[in-house]
Design goal:
Length: about 280
């Protein structure tokens, strides 16, 4: 009887010890998991910021290449002053954005620096062409407008931080929250996409631009850029919905011009005209 009670007591103590040991083990595993941080999700081609950012950078290099191509093989009469200036501003802002966004996109930053240089050369060619054709007044008006825009932009950059600080400290609810947002109007994450809206706007304003004045290489690069950046903008940190929306617009507007150019140069030219049909008869 005594041995039976002793065995029961020993078994009970063993069970208690086992439960404590199991509990301590689970606690240790939980602590180790917390120290290691959240579990990293598997990255696929659809969720890879590096992949989509790399493709966008290659499309951007295509835009720089288009400017170089146009400079070597096409005359300055096809250069759009409005689009060229917009591209210079756009690439200047995006070079900065690509360098500070997470993950950093050095290939994209380099491509935009190259595009600033290429588009600046295009601007020089266009202005020299107009001067050589007696359009001095048009060139002078253009230079005055560019100077005004430059002064306004410099002043905005200079007083921007003070305005942001005042709005945040004023506790104005949504306004203060927007002023301090990671991708808010006082950050490059906001103004880089806004510069791209200028590209889309320029494309929309020139929907009836003569097809002989459309650069096939430039608009091919712009269309590809809009496609890749639509996805890329949702994978970077901070997520940039403004960048996503503008790239949808860029893809549609540039694709429209690209389709018109291809139709005019490669489809309509191959169709027999009425005069050709009469000659054949």
């Amino acid at each position: 009887m005594m041995y039976s009670r002793l065995a029961t007591a020993t078994l009970s103590r063993t069970r208690v010890y086992s439960r404590r040991l199991l509990s301590n083990t689970e606690t240790s595993k939980s602590a180790a998991s917390a120290a290691a941080g959240p579990t990293t999700k598997k990255t696929t081609w659809w969720t890879s910021a590096e992949l989509w950012g790399g493709m966008g950078a290659l499309a951007g290099w295509g835009m720089s290449g288009a400017a170089i191509y146009d400079a070597t093989l096409q005359g300055p009469e096809v250069i759009s002053l409005n689009m060229t200036c917009v591209l210079i501003v756009y690439s200047s802002l995006f070079a900065r954005w690509a360098w500070i966004v997470k993950p950093r996109n050095a290939l994209l930053a380099a491509c935009h620096v190259a595009n600033v240089l290429a588009q600046s050369n295009q601007l020089r060619r266009a202005l020299e062409y107009k001067l050589s054709n007696g359009q001095e007044e048009q060139v002078k008006e253009f230079m005055n407008k560019a100077a005004m825009v430059g002064v306004g932009a410099a002043g905005t950059v200079a007083i921007g931080p003070k305005i942001q600080s005042s709005l945040i400290n004023a506790n104005l609810g949504v306004v203060s929250k927007l002023a301090g947002a990671d991708a808010g109007p006082f950050t490059i994450h906001f103004w880089a996409p806004m510069s791209k809206w200028l590209i889309s706007g320029a494309s929309f304003l020139d929907l009836d631009r003569p097809t002989d004045k459309i650069s096939l290489a430039q608009y091919s690069a712009l269309t590809a850029t809009g496609f890749f950046f639509t996805r890329y903008s949702l994978l970077v940190i901070p997520i940039n919905y403004t960048l996503c929306s503008v790239n949808v617009a860029l893809f549609l507007s540039s694709g429209w011009h690209l389709g018109r150019k291809i139709k005019a140069d490669y489809i309509d030219e191959q169709k027999p005209t009425d005069a050709n049909i009469v000659d054949q008869e």
